Amino acid sequence: MEIQRRAFLKKTGSTFVCLCMAGGEALEAAEKNIVQYAVEDSKFEIDLNWHPNLKKVGGSETFQADNKKIIVLHPDENSYKAFENKCTHMGGQVAYSHKDGFMQCALHGSRFDTEGRVVKGPADKPLTEFRTSLDKNRLTVYLS
Ligand code: FES
After folding, report:
1. Nearest 5°: phi and psi at 12?
2. How much distance in Å is there from the Cα of 3 to the middle of ligand 1?
3. Which domains, ranges and CATH numbers included, belong to the chain?
4. Which of 37, 76, 83, 135 fits 127 for a cystine, CB–CB 3.0-4.6 Å?
């Protein structure tokens, strides 16, 4: 447990995410640091106090947990969602737009709703979802 509490401090570098918006709107680009968490008993805990963007409704953040990238969304007041951040088409990284209500792959534009279901191809399979639970400001993501 002590390892997990300290794990958020380990930054793994950065990745560039390009999100193409619906209706031909301008491209929105954001550079994000990906925080690495140690997985213990097939789960990891996120202290939301260290992730204010994720704490607010509409926020999202991608984490590295062992060898997986996990995108966590806060799409509405009462839920957090977690998915493997690996597009089911060819493995591209997705980014979440709360305004548009979907995650979009940076490579070929597949879109997934907040349940991980495909709403626009070329992907034809849903994102892999992981169960979450919230206890005050501690969000646990279960990888199995
Ligand atoms: S890899 Fe995601 S749409 Fe092709």
Report:
1. -105, 10
2. 34
3. 2-142 (2.102.10.10)
4. 83
Q: Hey, what's the torsion of the CAs at 56, 57, 62, 64, to 10 degrees?
A: 60
Q: Which residues contact 75 (CB under 8 A, 6 or more apart)?
A: 57, 58, 81, 98, 101, 114
pLDDT digits (tens, 9 = 90+) for 54-70: 999 999 999 999 899 99
Q: Indicate if ligand 1 lies below 6 Å from the C-beta of 120.
A: no
User: pTM (2 decimals)?
Assistant: 0.79
Lowest mean pLDDT, pick from 5-9, 39-43, 73-77, 107-111: 5-9
C-alpha closest to that of 70 among 50, 51, 94: 94
